[in-house]
Amino acid sequence: MRADCSLHRQLQPAACLGVLVLLASSVAPRAQETIALDTITVGGQRPVSTPVGLDAYRTPGDAPGGLTRAVTSGGILGSKRVVDTPFSVTGFTDKLIRDQQAQVATDILRNDASVTVQNTLGSFADQLYIRGFEVALTDRLYDGAQVGYLNKFALEGIQRIEVLKGSSAVLFGVSTSQGIGGIINFVPKRALPFDYTSVTASYVAPGYVGTNVDVSRRGGERDEFGLRFNGAFNDGTLYSGTSLRHELAQINLDYAPSDRVRLYADFVYAANFNDRDQLPFTLLPGVPVPRAIRADRNYAQRWNYTDNPGSLGYVRAEVDLSDAWTLSAHYRHSFFGNNYFAVIPTIGDATGHYSLFPFRINSHIEGDGGQLNLRGRFDTGFLRHEASVGVDVENDRIFTSTPAFGEPLASSLFNPVYYPRPDLQTGSARLSNDTLVRTGYATDLITLPGGAVQILGGVRYVDILSANVDTALGTSTARTSQDRAVPLAALLLHPTPDTLLYASYAQGFQRGSIAPANAVNANAALPPIPSEQVEAGAKAEFAGLIATVAAFRIERSLEYVDAATQRFVQSGLQVHSGLEASLAGEVSPGVRLLASVMALDPVAQRTGDPLTDGRVPIGVPRFQSSLYGEVDLPFERGLTLTGGLYYVGSQYVDLLNTQRIPAWARVDLGLRYRRQLDPTTLATLRLGVENAADHRYYASAASGLGLGAPRTFKVALQVEW
């Protein structure tokens, strides 16, 4: 019998969502200036003609071709064109999410070469790395707001995914984890300016089926009320033999009582239930890396499971105090459950024999947070200012049961042995960590006469209070309290309105990581750590394309499980110097391209051990590339051929650099056919095959060795009206 997953916590959000659906269904610039991002104008006239299908409606801010964004979030700076931001950012659109049949965020984020992906669809979590640094669960934002811990964002309700690279402490708030490499911002769908309904049926071989419903409505005398509902249910068996059930109910409401006031309320229930999901395995020191097995050969025990129920409530208000000043505030409450009965395989020899360490644990995270922000424009003499001031408060509480561990078991990657389920009992989850982050910030973007030169300056004061709690005794075992002011500075030069040269410097201050389950100090929170980044780059928008190039250097404390003591520690520095470039857009009518590369020089310094000083950190590839393209075939209207080529360089498994996984490349192919069934109805059939060559590989070594997905067929049929 599985542990109680707080059923009332799961049912309450779903019930509220159902009531809201029933209620709502009855309601029939210049280059350097701030640009409204995906703002749906309410209280005005609807379009004279309603587009057939979302592809006929170009969302404001999408780049030519519709694969990426020309306008993305600049955090407390507001929305900005990509060519006006002094940091690297990529925005992937809802169109790309649908056309690539993305089930999880990792399916989309592999289109950015600066992002390393470890896990696949059947994994219990999306493990991501930007510029070689982990993007922890708390470094994933919802509509620009930190939402605590959400293991996987359900993509059915997401309008776009933004990848913001480098230190983001000043612009987006202090990461409650280790997001020095960057953050991921999930922007939700909101009501369209016209009525819209979509139903999608999907299939992932060999037996994972699902359906998704997307409904948008507006009502009121001025269309001032908006509703967007997304519901999804997927269930079945994946290639590995893992059984996965995915549930989603999401409502996004907006209301504009006047032209100067905008209100938003979002309610999300999302859950994933995995059986026989495979955790990445570890290697004993000195053991050669065994060859990668087929990912459809499941080495997990039949009694493995992971349950991840989650819910989110989010409200936001924006008030235009004048034409130049806007006051905004938001509040969120989130709940995320993480209950699992699993094994951690540890490889003991080159033939793939390993020890299994069964363990069971129940945990959940509750979080609250809010922000108050004032942003506006003003002039001082010949200088123009875009300023922002505000405060953030985030409180996340981790509840964990006392882990139960079983006797070690023996098995093999190439000939798995399956055992009866051990009798492991664990109690209810109790408070194990309580962290409060309070910040105050101010930024100013100064534009000199003519608009060709801009200077950005900002500072954020950070106060982090964290306490580890003994779950058995309920007493505090360790408290940390640190505060720091972190600065941001950038110089922007615009040779033309559509080009940018920039240089920036930023510091970060992050809460230390939580020790992993395989460390002797598991679940302990390490002290906060500083970081810094220097970046210089160039951007240009031309002929339907957006091109970017950036050079960067990032320093932060090195965190790892010490091989000798098995303790998760902070020791030394992790320094990443790199170069990245991207090109995206419409090359010619009917031909669309999304390409990027990253070359990285990662090194560990001042570790206190001459054997590890100067070595490459664990799980960091030196080179990655990503190429995706679409071609509309001329002989049949609505028929499109798609394809992707993804390459990730070799990675070290240990800090001594004696164990390494090889580089790998993957080819994806796809075909899409759109046909208008009647004047108001559009049908789209999408066919895809991932890893078409059926290559066996390790996707990453950053958090253990994770197997890449085998050849996988996908089919989806969408009908829109």
Automatic annotation (TrEMBL):
<dbReference type="InterPro" id="IPR000531">
    <property type="entry name" value="Beta-barrel_TonB"/>
</dbReference>
<keyword id="KW-0812">Transmembrane</keyword>
<keyword id="KW-0675">Receptor</keyword>
<feature type="domain" description="TonB-dependent receptor-like beta-barrel">
    <location>
        <begin position="272"/>
        <end position="691"/>
    </location>
</feature>
<keyword id="KW-0998">Cell outer membrane</keyword>
<feature type="domain" description="TonB-dependent receptor plug">
    <location>
        <begin position="83"/>
        <end position="179"/>
    </location>
</feature>
<keyword id="KW-0813">Transport</keyword>
<dbReference type="InterPro" id="IPR037066">
    <property type="entry name" value="Plug_dom_sf"/>
</dbReference>
<dbReference type="InterPro" id="IPR010105">
    <property type="entry name" value="TonB_sidphr_rcpt"/>
</dbReference>
<protein>
    <submittedName>
        <fullName>Ferrichrome receptor FcuA</fullName>
    </submittedName>
</protein>
<dbReference type="Pfam" id="PF07715">
    <property type="entry name" value="Plug"/>
</dbReference>
<dbReference type="Pfam" id="PF00593">
    <property type="entry name" value="TonB_dep_Rec_b-barrel"/>
</dbReference>
<dbReference type="InterPro" id="IPR039426">
    <property type="entry name" value="TonB-dep_rcpt-like"/>
</dbReference>
<dbReference type="InterPro" id="IPR012910">
    <property type="entry name" value="Plug_dom"/>
</dbReference>
<dbReference type="InterPro" id="IPR036942">
    <property type="entry name" value="Beta-barrel_TonB_sf"/>
</dbReference>
<keyword id="KW-0472">Membrane</keyword>
<keyword id="KW-1134">Transmembrane beta strand</keyword>
<keyword id="KW-0732">Signal</keyword>
<comment type="similarity">
    <text>Belongs to the TonB-dependent receptor family.</text>
</comment>
<feature type="signal peptide">
    <location>
        <begin position="1"/>
        <end position="31"/>
    </location>
</feature>
<keyword id="KW-0798">TonB box</keyword>
